[in-house]
Write the structure tokens for this entry.
Amino acid sequence: MSQTPRAVIFGCEGTRLNNMERRFIADASPWGAILFARNVETPAQLSALCADWRDVLGRDIPILIDQEGGRVQRMRAPHWREWMPALEQTQRSTNPARAMYVRGRLIAGELRAAGVDVNCAPLADIAFAHTHAVLRNRCYGQDVDTVTACARAMANGLLAGGVLPVLKHIPGHGRADLDSHLDLPVVDTKREELDRTDFAAFRALADLPMGMSAHLVFSDIDPDLPATTSIRMIDLIRTSIGFSGLLMSDDISMQALRGPVAARADAALRAGCDIVLHCNGNLDEMRSLADACPPMSAAAQQRADQALAQRTSPDGADMDALLTEYDTLVGAA
């Protein structure tokens, strides 16, 4: 096991690590793990899987999940709460930011109880009329002010519950009219308009500890490469937007990107991403990525350490009272 973690986050195939995965993970030494619905059955099983990962690597690794609520939540009924889509929640709530804070705090309680300590949320993508359906109702609003207030509140709720937030999808996925899981979206909006809207939302949240890049082309800035693998776009994220936290790629195996996954990972790291995210649990792909992803750079390790330093104990909030408040805020039965 290398002393410095490798610049990659891996998933796994099933509900427990098998022997081949355990040997591979111990040798590859990824920075963290990410879990999906295929890895989740019951609270006891999920806790055991998180313990497996940490035992194999011999450190308190960050374990990520996408528990936005709505369509994108890996932990579901009957063991965990089902949440309404975020856009629906903000549109019906009497106090959208407070409702999003409470949502974040309640989700954090469920995650921490299971051993998960990083949530791939909040989203600061703005919902437009043409936003692809894969994203639109996951957004928090249709204007910069609503989106930033609700995203800040969600992040604060997660942090209060001892869960680190991952800001996504930097520098903004809302104008995409294609699903980047399947195709490469191209945004032709001019830089000046992006600065006033999409980029402004992320600029207001640039102090959050971790972020995730977007797999889409901004033709007015770099017409040739998606943000994840574009030096120009990563420089914009760091300078114009001012994001100084740990920057991970979106899932490197998504079809918006082209070429072998190892080449994609190399391009993302060379462009300035700190770490590569790989989600599908395919062991052959993970082996190729382990060869392509070096130990984290000193700068990336420093940003990672600063992020993990914000992983604190939950604040002891009254969860029953928060649940009652949430239902009141959103008019739920």
Observations:
- The first helix runs from residue 19 to 28.
- The chain has one domain: 7-30+44-330.
- The radius of gyration is 19 Å.
